[in-house]
Amino acid sequence: MIPGQESADHGEVRVMLLPTQGRDLLVPASAVAEIVSADAVQPLPDTPEWLLGELQWRGRRVPAVAFASPPEGQGRGRAHARVVVCFMPAGSPALPFVALYSRGMPRLERAAPDNLSTEQDPHPFALSALALGERHAWLPDFTALERALLAAQTSG
Questions:
Q1: Cα 116–chain centre separation
Q2: Structural domain that includes position 36
Q3: Is residue 16, in this structure, part of any structural domain at all?
Q4: Among candidates 145, 119, 142, which has minimal Cα distance to 132?
Q5: Which of 22, 2, 24 minimizes the C-alpha distance to 11?
Q6: Does the pLDDT of residue 7 top 50, yes or no?
Q7: 114 class by beta-carbon count within 10 Å (0-12 exposed, 13-18 middle, 19+ buried)
Q8: pTM value?
Q9: Which own/partner pairs from 152-155 qualify as long-range (CB within 8 Å, at least 24 positions apart)?
Q10: What does the pLDDT read at residue 2?
């Protein structure tokens, strides 16, 4: 599972399930710093489609990323769209946070190894695809995401 995140409850891990189009994101709850409206994201010119823009958050510029294409328009097309600001595990001074797009309000869940199953559905920023009960989700690969964001910053 996710190293260092097991609880005393039979290996359960507290996770946030972020709804996206088609497949959700499964993020350790301990990685979440704050959830804010997607309206706060300011688009950037000449960036990859997955890089929605930047969020001004607590005096920092935080890149906002979508794992699936969000709708166009204000608030990315939905009144309930959010971005979830997450700590980057590597703790890089250049990129300490990332904001992940969510089509609605994320939900706190408990995941245990016996209720997760691995699936085949590759994504360039996912460690793996999982099923949590009836929900299908990607487990983000924060290292790959960090590399892509740093490359986009240097090319932009």
A1: 18
A2: 25-154
A3: no
A4: 119
A5: 2
A6: no
A7: exposed
A8: 0.83
A9: 152/47, 152/48, 152/51, 152/63, 153/63
A10: 43
Tokens read off for 73: 């328009």
CA–CA gap between residue 52 and residue 37 (Å, rounded):
13
Site of tokens 């250049």 = 94
Q: Are 77 and 66 in contact (CB under 8 A)?
A: no
* Model pLDDT for residues 126-153, shown as the tens digit of each residue: 888 887 778 888 889 999 999 999 888 8
The secondary structure of the chain, three-state, reads CCCCCCCCCCCCEEEEEECCCCCEEEEEHHHEEEEEEHHHEECCCCCCCCEEEEEEECCEEEEEECCCCCCCCHHHHCCCCEEEEEECCCCCCCCCEEEEEECCCCEEEEECHHHEEEECCCCCCEEEEEEECCEEEEEECHHHHHHHHHHHHHHC
Q: What CATH number corresponds to the domain at position 36?
A: 2.40.50.180
Residue 2 maps to a domain: no
Take residue 91 and report the two structure tokens written for it: 């703790």
